[in-house]
Write a structure and sequence with these properties.
Layout lengths: L4 H21 L5 H7 L32 H13 L4 H13 L9 H13 L6 E4 L6 H10 L4 E5 L3 H10 L4 E3 L14 E7 L10 H4 L4 H6 L3 H12 E12 L1 H4 L4 H10 E9 L5 H4 L5 E8 L8 H7 L1 E3 L5 E3 L12 E6 L5 E6 L3 H20 L2 H4 L10 E2 L60 E2 L4 H6 L64 E2 L13 E4 L2 E9 L4 E6 L4 H27 L4 H18 L5 H8 L11 E4 L2 E4 L19 H12 L4 H8 L3 H7 L4 E4 L4 E4 H4 L2 E2 H14 L4 H13 L20 H12 L4 E5 L4 E5 L5 H6 L2 E2 L4 E2 L1 H10 L6 E6 L2 E6 L1 H23 L3 H14 L3 E2 L15 H4 L6 H13 L2 E5 L5 H14 L6 E5 L4 H11 L5 E2 L10 H11 L4 E5 H5 L5 H23 L7 H27 L7 H4 L3 E5 L16 E2 L8 H17 L5 E4 L10 H9 L1 H6 L5 H8 ...
Parallel strand pairs: 1-2, 1-4, 2-3, 4-5, 12-13, 30-36, 30-39, 31-33, 31-34, 32-33, 34-36, 35-38, 40-45, 41-43, 41-44, 42-43, 44-45
Antiparallel strand pairs: 5-7, 6-7, 8-9, 10-11, 14-17, 15-16, 16-17, 18-19, 20-21, 22-29, 23-24, 25-26, 27-28, 37-38, 38-46, 47-48, 48-49, 49-50, 50-51
Helix pairs in contact: 1-3, 1-7, 5-6, 5-15, 10-12, 12-14, 18-19, 21-22, 25-26, 29-30, 33-34, 34-35, 38-39, 47-49, 47-57, 50-51, 58-62, 58-63, 63-64
Length: 1802
């Protein structure tokens, strides 16, 4: 019987209906219901369920062949919805259903029955069985029937719906709705049988014992779920136990899986391996797939491999270049009746095996083969546990095995208890002791008891023991008072009891000492209560192994369930004194934790609880000593929640003090605020309530409110909208356009409110200058542009109705077009080998600025391979560019009203922000020690920045190097603390200069309470105390290094929330893909699902990494840190983000770094607390180090809410507005097209700068007036050496051909070929530095860069010898490495040998090994004892204050980023350079070494221009709206044409750049002219059509008016009669009846969008129409009324809305007709205006552009110059007797060579 989709779907619906019914009725299934439940088969093979089916019209999205299944699918979805408690649960059910489409292929029962029967016939008895991927329980059913009721069956099923079915079929089975990886460790080595049809795929598994293990096979297994199931399954088996898995053939066939197979054979015997036919699943699951049955027997004492086991591990390659397992060379191991050659699911050649007798025949033959294998290889004695006696402890001394064998120490108990089982407790970063660990002697052995079974141990390193956390009461899991397995009980002196002592006594809790050190006796009760449910009050901080009191005993908790607030209480047998002491400790602990949590949550003082804590603590200390005494620490370490208790005490000068929490709250501030002047009163008010509270300000300052208003005139404004006062920096800032509109409305209604008028005036004056339509650049796909505009454009482009919808949640567009035409099918379509991408598909790509990844099939030898179809991709890119260009042209062609509305929306959304002018001159900084700092006062720039930080609760301090950022940090932190604006600020800085920050803080504020732990204080053990110190004390500031900050645990809840957002975006993409199910292949869908699953594992792993590598004691949220100062914030720019543009160069690492994620977690914690943006201050002189794309990450950190307001919720939405992607196509080595994409152009840059500057204080040294040297840049040109000349030619040939042997290296690999130009660029850099960087075969040369640099260093050395002037030498290439040749050492050699400079005066920064040496070398440099210091950007470019004597900087190479160049120069060009100031004209020479015909000069110019643009953006002083960042980066190098032209040394490049710029300008001008012309043409056509329509309308209106005048009737009093005749009313109906009827029609009519005739008036037809609109996802139906004349014009009154009053309702139609004269007048005016515009438009349309000849001449000149450049290049080639094919190839590659000698701004 074939696979029936309708039948399987119906069975699934019936089964789910019963399952839901059973849940509601809370009962087990009846026999008949159970049979129906067992028919459930999942949704494998039912791909149609991926299609949408919520609405009837969704059937159009389905394949026609699946239409009969649509109704049933709707029934299924309705069933799931009806049985869901909310939308979230419904979505989880649907996701479960859809997720099983690719995974739910259940095994036919006859095959499982055959496996079970074969085992039964071999007399196998099963007590414990595990099914790790149970499905609906087919394996369970079969084994239950065959073996009867077993004592225990455990099943794992990850799928939600399937697990629900499984639980109801087998209520007695221990079913767990989770993945197999979540099985508890204590179930290892315990199962008789593990059997399943396991999942297959390259899906990763989150199991740290595997993915983070030391053994390669386990690490590999964690990356593929099928391999993981095998190894994990054998872990669960007891010795002798059996594993029987049905799995994919790839487990045995894949050569990569050989380590897995070897690992399996290490501790298991191979019983059977049988290949099953491809048609096994055809009838049952509708799919053909090859599978194997593998049966193993656990044998941990195995010594070697048999021949068949060796063959099991091996594979061989077939003639078709596929791999196959050696076992199946013989077809006898394959169940089949026929075979033929075909392809597998992936299109690869494969042999297909089939069985002609179907499933029954397969089961019969498989069973026969399996029985034979069991007879031959099953060790029944091993299975039954019949083994020879072995030594008590057998220690493995040989080489460490591939896989760890579990350490088993089985103790034969002398009392009747079961052996103890260890369960690992969560690591808290220190050694948590068991109570019984206090009794153990270090010399005690691991043996216990006289008789033991065999033990197998792996070598254990001491280090592991020292750092691992012991399990609390590790030996007492199963007993109320057992003996520890690693010790005998001790007496009071710490010695073993003699044999007469009772075995059950736990021992002395405190090593036999009471609080006074006196020996005590042990009370020995006969019996303790059994463990029971804890009946005491449950606290939120309880967890496993937590000490508690209950029922008169002290004990510990296990199986803690925080949600249910319950746990198992295990009592301990303690002596009387021990019990009293433990109870006293528990009381102190609970009192402390209760106090802290209450104050942290409620943010209010709890004095009663604080008094209780003091009382309990004082009593405990009086009796037992300080908490940190040795005896008490032992007690505390036995308590899993006691980690914070030692930090309740502080030691100052050897004296123990109580922590601050004993005296005052530490989780919030309780300072009484006072102010000495209006400004301080204002700041205090903002802190207290977030607004200007004049009454409060008056109270704390003693100044009246009127006096305050007068004193703060211009500083505060009245906000009439909220009826309160606001500070000017807040009122006149942000979105002033929106504010001004609202205030204007208020003023119109309240013209007498003078304060409101003053406030409005301030907003109006601050409004940014309007940006007009002509100045704007638009990208198709910008999210702020209304969808209706995209609808109109697409409909115009394709000449048919197109509907576009944007989903903010998924950041994606959906497009619908019911009537496609030739524009879609042909004009804007790309046809490839695999499919046709029509205009709709390409429009979607155009909207998100991507290009489709089109593939084709090629033959490589005899094998067919799928590769990217670059020609089709390039064509698609061209069509997409046409669509995007057409959008811009279409916008310019629209009428003025449209343009005005679009411009208004843009200005209201983006050009509406104002940055206030912050003036902090009033600040007095009362606690600042100016004398100690050696300053009269702060710079005004520093004051302004501090004021900005205080007002906004954060900022970006973008100050140039040497501008005093350190003092800004210290002063702002202390001021925020003083005024209560921050409770506990934290500064984090680089390790190299954080000490200077701390010293500056101490100097500036000598009495401040600063916590600055040194490196030695941050060891794993000591840092726990540091975290406790931070939490429990009120610090003015905490200062840490970046690395130390990274060790602080973050709030797990916040981590989960942020990481879940990242996962959600992938899930939303998957959902969007599933909706296109008929368009996509199974392989594509599975690929996305696997990516989702792998991301889930990755996020789990990342979450674990962040948690496990820190000490899980006090997290960041608990510390109470409420403001972060991040020095050198650019070090955190590597933040995770999602994007579609994965192939775009220069975006950085999208995966992000853990360091950056940690900072994001911390900032989000603060922002969550305040409900506002910022919450942190970033300080760096290089906030933008290389590209403007870095701005997005800054905003993601600090302005998430502001981005959300602009509709930007991801990087792609941001890039769609501000970036413009360029795509270059080049030829590869194999003459294939290679695609290169990058965000090279940035548009709307002034608005981007405005958004940045709103939260940024940007200052250059010049702005501040810092007394520092000027920079004198010297470009030192060096002619190439003869060897370089030859190598340059080889580089050009390599760039053209890809022949790597020209460079003296091996042939390029496939991956290297893709990076050919990056390799070429790298070689060019090395070549220009020194030829010996490429190969040792090259010699020194007097004209190389090292020689020139040495000569210049010597020149400056001699010139400033008297002053001991110093010099920096930078190079990121050829850095110092001991024992090998490098440029640093070469220049040093020249300086010593050629110029006589002493060797000790020349040092390399790489020589220093620690911070102490670093400081010594910098000190010697400043003193002139070291005169020349070499280093890289990373090691010497930051944190080095060696400027005192610096007179020159040498750049041997140019770094990749402008920020790196600035950091290098900042080492000498900064305040405090005395020699430059007094002896060198206050200048520092900066020498850039550039070899001619190399990339040196080009790269330097590129960086220089990029830095200019970045500086202009920061200062918000850009003269251009679009900038070009250039076309070279460290990830991809440069493009071919530019590379070859620059290396050729052709001076025509500069002229070429000028010509290109002129041509670009003329092109732009012509484009503008044509736009205007096209716009006028469209307008002319529109006006002509509009005039005709208006004239026609006017004539018809006149006719209607004439008819009305003729027919109108008047009453006796002269008023016009209103003889309305309604269809359903008699002619005699009165006004009330008519009005009532009309209101009834208004409420109940449903015309489905058609006009329905309802009556007449004076011969005019009365109509009603139902119009439908959407609001919040709901259909809103609205009835409108019309009166229509003979010409078909419909007139309305009150927009067609019917009045509720009957009299007014009856007059509706007559009122509409009376508007006719006014309407006719309007039409006449329109016609007159259009007649006036016609001659002007005709003149523009018929005009021509006057500069066409000038443009043609320039193009001809450029073409001639291109030919000249190409000829010069080919001429160079001919000189080396090269063939002339280079020129023709070059011509094919690039008709015109692009110039990048200068960055272009447009």
């Amino acid at each position: 019987m074939g696979f029936s989709k309708p039948q399987h779907l119906q069975c699934n619906i019936d089964a789910l209906s019963i399952a839901f019914k059973l849940e509601k009725e809370k009962r087990n299934a009846t026999a008949s219901e159970r049979l129906l439940l067992m028919q459930y088969s999942g949704f494998g093979g039912l791909k149609f369920v991926l299609n949408p089916a919520d609405n009837p019209i969704d059937i159009n999205e389905w394949r026609k062949t699946d239409h009969p299944l649509f109704a049933k699918t709707q029934e299924l979805l309705q069933l799931l919805r009806e049985n869901s408690t909310d939308e979230k649960q419904y979505r989880s059910y649907v996701d479960s259903m859809r997720g099983s489409v690719l995974t739910a292929f259940y095994t036919p029962p006859p095959v499982i029955n055959a496996i079970a029967a074969a085992l039964k016939e071999k007399s196998i008895a099963i007590d414990r069985m595990l099914e790790p991927s149970a499905g609906s329980g087919a394996f369970i059913e079969s084994f239950k029937k065959t073996f009867g009721a077993t004592s225990e069956i455990s099943a794992y099923e990850k799928d939600l719906l399937t697990a629900k079915i499984l639980k109801h079929i087998y209520p007695d089975v221990n079913t767990r709705v989770s993945g197999f990886e979540e099985i508890p460790e204590n179930e290892k080595n315990s199962y008789d049988l593990v059997t399943s049809n396991i999942p297959f795929g390259d899906t990763s598994v989150f199991d740290l014992s595997y993915c983070r293990g030391k053994y390669p096979a386990r690490v590999q297994a964690a990356r593929s779920i099928h391999n993981y199931f095998f190894l994990k399954g054998t872990d669960m088996l007891r010795d002798g136990g059996l594993l029987a898995f049905i799995t994919s053939q790839a487990v045995l066939n894949s050569a990569r899986n050989e380590p897995i197979r070897k690992a399996l054979m290490h501790d298991n015997n191979l019983i059977s391996a049988i290949r099953l036919p491809n048609n096994l699943f055809t009838d049952h699951a509708g799919t053909q797939v090859g599978s194997d049955l593998i049966v193993l027997q656990k044998n941990s004492q195995k010594q070697g491999l048999s021949e068949i086991e060796q063959r099991f591990c091996q594979t061989y390659t077939t003639a078709d270049d596929t791999t196959n397992n050696v076992l199946f060379e013989n077809l006898d191991r394959i169940v089949h009746t026929s075979l033929y050659k075909d392809t597998d699911l992936y299109g690869r050649p494969a042999w297909i095996y089939e069985h002609g007798e179907g499933v029954e025949g397969i089961a019969r033959d498989m069973k026969k083969m399996l029985l034979s294998d069991l007879t031959e290889r099953l060790d029944i004695g091993l299975y039954r546990g019949l083994k020879k006696d072995e030594p008590v402890i057998k220690i493995f001394t040989g080489p460490k095995p591939e896989l760890p064998r579990d350490e088993q120490i089985t103790i034969k108990q002398q009392i009747g208890h079961a052996p103890a089982q260890n369960t690992s407790s969560r690591s808290t970063g220190h050694v948590q002791l068991s109570l019984f660990d206090l009794l153990a002697s270090p010399q005690q052995t691991a043996s216990a008891g006289a008789t033991s079974t065999a033990v197998k141990q792996s070598p254990v390193k001491k280090k592991t023991i020292a750092t691992a956390q012991s399990n609390l009461f590790s030996a007492v899991n199963q007993q109320p008072h057992p003996l520890p397995v690693n010790s005998k009980p001790l007496n009071g002196e710490g010695k073993p009891f003699n044999g007469n002592k009772p075995q059950g006594v736990a021992g002395d809790l405190f090593s036999g000492l009471n609080g006074n050190g006196v020996n005590v006796s042990v009370s020995q009760s006969a019996v303790l209560p059994e463990p029971s449910l804890y009946s005491g009050s449950f606290c939120s901080y309880y967890r496993d192994d937590c000490l508690v009191t209950g029922n008169g005993f002290v004990g510990y908790l296990r199986k803690v369930d925080s949600e249910k607030q319950q746990a198992m209480f295990h009592p301990l047998q303690l002596s009387g004194s021990q019990k009293v002491r433990a109870e006293a400790y528990i009381a102190v602990r609970d009192s402390y934790l209760d106090l802290y949590h209450k104050e942290a949550v409620l943010q209010s003082e709890h004095n009663e609880e604080r008094a209780t804590l003091n009382r309990l603590y004082d009593g405990f200390v009086k009796r037992y000593g300080n908490l940190n005494s040795a005896d008490n620490i032992k007690l505390i370490k036995t308590d899993s929640v006691g980690n914070e208790i030692p930090y309740m005490e502080r030691v100052v000068g050897g004296v123990v003090h109580k922590a601050d929490i004993f005296h005052r709250p530490v989780s919030f501030s309780t300072n009484t605020i006072a102010a000495g002047n209006p400004d301080e009163a204002l700041a205090a008010s903002l802190n207290k309530s977030g607004k200007v509270d004049l009454d409060f300000m008056s109270r704390i300052s003693g100044i009246t409110t009127e006096e305050l208003k007068t004193a703060l005139h211009g500083r505060i404004y009245y906000n009439p909208l909220d009826r309160e006062y606001e500070i000017s920096e807040r009122w006149v800032c942000g979105d002033v356009v929106e504010k001004a509109a609202a205030v204007q409305t208020y003023v119109n209604e309240n013209p007498g409110d003078k304060e409101a008028v003053e406030s409005l005036k301030a907003l109006t004056q601050a409004r940014p200058t309007r940006i007009e339509f002509e100045e704007l650049d638009f990208n198709l796909g910008e999210r702020w542009i209304p969808q209706g505009i995209y609808n109109r454009f697409a409909s115009s482009l394709f000449d048919t109705e197109v509907r576009i919808h944007y989903s903010e949640n998924t950041d994606d567009f959906s497009i619908n077009c019911d009537r496609k035409n030739v524009h879609i099918w042909d004009k804007y379509a790309v046809k490839s080998e695999s499919r046709t991408y029509d205009g709709i598909a390409l429009l979607k790509h155009a909207l998100v600025n991507t290009t489709p990844d089109i593939t084709k099939k090629i033959m490589v030898g005899d094998q067919e391979m799928k590769v990217r179809d670059m020609e089709a991709i390039q064509m698609a890119g061209t069509k997409i560019d046409q669509i995007r260009t057409a959008f811009t042209e279409w916008l310019h062609a629209q009428n003025d009203e449209f343009k005005k509305r679009l411009t208004d929306k843009y200005n209201d959304t983006f050009n509406c922000f104002v940055r206030p002018q912050y003036n902090g001159s009033h600040q007095e900084f009362p606690e600042l020690n100016r004398k100690g700092l050696g300053i009269d006062d702060l710079y005004s720039s520093q004051k302004d920045t501090v004021w900005m930080i205080k007002l906004n609760n954060g900022a970006i301090c973008d100050h140039e190097v040497g501008a005093g950022k350190t003092l800004v940090m210290c002063t702002a932190a202390q001021e925020m603390k003083r005024l209560g604006l921050a409770h506990k600020p934290m500064i984090i800085g680089l390790k190299s200069n954080v000490h200077e920050i701390a010293e500056a803080y101490r100097t500036a504020y000598p009495h401040a309470r600063i916590l600055y732990p040194g490196k030695e204080d941050f060891t794993p053990k000591k840092r726990l105390r540091i975290f406790g110190e931070i939490k429990n004390n009120n610090w003015d500031c905490v200062i840490l290094t970046h690395d130390q900050f990274g060790m602080i645990p973050q709030s797990p809840e916040l981590q989960k929330e942020i990481l879940q957002i990242e996962l959600d975006s992938v899930e939303e993409n998957l959902a969007a893909l599933q909706k296109q199910s008929k368009e996509i292949s199974r392989a594509m869908l599975k690929g996305v699902i696997v990516r989702k699953q792998n991301l889930e594992v990755k996020l789990k792993t990342l979450e674990h990494d962040i948690g496990s590598r820190k000490d899980d004691v006090v997290d960041f949220k608990m510390m109470g840190i409420d403001h972060l100062f991040v020095d050198e914030s650019h070090r955190f720019k590597n933040l995770m983000f999602n994007t579609r543009h994965e192939r775009v160069a220069g975006l950085g690492n999208m995966q992000g770094s853990q360091k950056a994620m940690n900072l994001l977690f911390a900032i989000r914690t603060i922002q969550e607390r305040t409900g506002k943006d910022l919450g942190a201050t970033f300080l760096s002189g290089t906030t933008i180090s290389n590209s403007l794309t870095e701005l997005y990450l800054l905003f993601k950190y600090l302005r998430p809410k502001a981005l959300e307001k602009q509709g930007i919720n991801c990087f792609d939405a941001w890039a769609a507005i501000y970036a413009r992607k360029t795509t270059d196509y080049e030829f590869s080595v194999a003459n294939n097209i290679v695609q290169k994409e990058r965000f090279r152009f940035f548009i709307k840059v002034p608005e981007l700068a405005q958004f940045y500057s709103e939260i940024t204080d940007y200052r250059t040294a010049k702005d501040i007036g810092i007394d520092r040297p000027e920079k004198k840049e010297i470009l030192h040109n060096i002619p190439p050496t003869p060897q370089q000349e030859v190598f340059i030619k080889k580089l050009m040939e390599f760039a053209k051909t890809g022949d790597a042997t020209l460079l003296g290296r091996s042939k390029l690999s496939e991956s290297e070929e893709k990076a050919k130009m990056l390799i070429a660029t790298d070689y060019a850099r090395k070549m220009s530095l020194d030829m010996r960087m490429i190969s040792s075969k090259y010699d020194d040369h007097p004209d190389n860069k090292a020689s020139h640099c040495a000569a210049n260093i010597a020149k400056y050395y001699q010139r400033f010898n008297a002053q001991k002037g110093t010099q920096f030498v930078f190079s990121d290439l050829g850095t110092y490495k001991p024992g090998g040749w490098n440029v640093y050492s070469e220049i040093k050699r020249k300086l010593i040998e050629d110029y006589g400079i002493p060797a000790y005066e020349i040092r390399f920064i790489q020589e220093v090994k620690n911070e102490k040496q670093r400081k010594e070398i910098i000190k010697a440099f400043n003193e002139g004892r070291i005169r020349v210091l070499f280093g890289s950007t990373d090691m010497l470019g930051t944190g080095v204050n060696g400027q005192k004597r610096a007179i020159a900087i040498h750049h041997l190479d140019t770094p990749w980023r402008p920020s790196d160049l600035a950091q290098r120069d900042g080492r000498a060009i900064r305040k405090g350079n005395e020699i430059a100031k007094f002896f060198a004209g206050n200048t520092v020479d900066v020498i850039i070494y550039a070899v001619e015909k190399s990339l040196d000069s080009y790269k330097f110019n590129l960086l220089y221009n990029k830095q200019v643009f970045i500086d202009q953006l920061k200062s918000n002083n850009l003269g251009k709206r679009t900038i070009d960042e250039g076309g070279i980066d460290e990830k991809s190098g440069m493009n071919f044409s530019e590379y070859v032209a620059i290396l050729s040394g052709n001076t025509d490049l500069l002229e070429k750049a000028k010509l290109e710029k002129q041509i670009a300008g003329l092109h732009s001008e012509r484009q503008a002219f044509n736009r205007s012309k096209f716009s006028s043409k469209y307008k002319l056509e529109d006006i002509t059509v509009s005039m005709e329509a208006a004239s026609s309308r006017l004539e018809r209106m006149k006719t209607d008016w004439d008819n009305l005048q003729k027919r109108i009737q008047k009453r006796q009093d002269g008023t016009i009669a209103n003889p309305v005749q309604l269809t359903d009313l008699p002619a005699t109906a009165d006004v009330k009846q008519i009005g009532t009827k009309l209101n009834e029609l208004s409420a109940k009519s449903r015309t489905e969008g058609e006009y329905l005739e309802i009556g007449s008036l004076y011969g005019f037809t009365l109509l009603v129409k139902t119009e439908i609109s959407k609001k919040d996802g709901m259909d809103i139906k609205d009835n409108r009324f019309f009166v229509m004349g003979e010409g078909g014009i419909k007139y309305t009154y009150n927009n067609g809305q019917m009045a509720s009053d009957p009299k007014l309702a009856s007059m509706n139609f007559l009122n509409a007709l009376e508007k006719l004269p006014g309407l006719m007048e309007q039409e006449e005016k329109k016609i007159a205006g259009m007649k006036k515009d016609l001659p002007v438009l005709q003149e523009v349309v018929n005009g021509t552009w006057t500069k066409e000849k000038q443009l043609t001449d320039l193009k001809n000149e450029l073409a001639g110059l291109d030919r000249k450049i190409l000829l010069s290049i080919s001429s160079e080639q001919r000189k080396d007797d090269q063939t002339d094919h280079f020129q023709s190839d070059e011509t094919k590659q690039s008709v015109s060579i692009k110039s990048s000698a200068k960055l272009k701004a447009m």
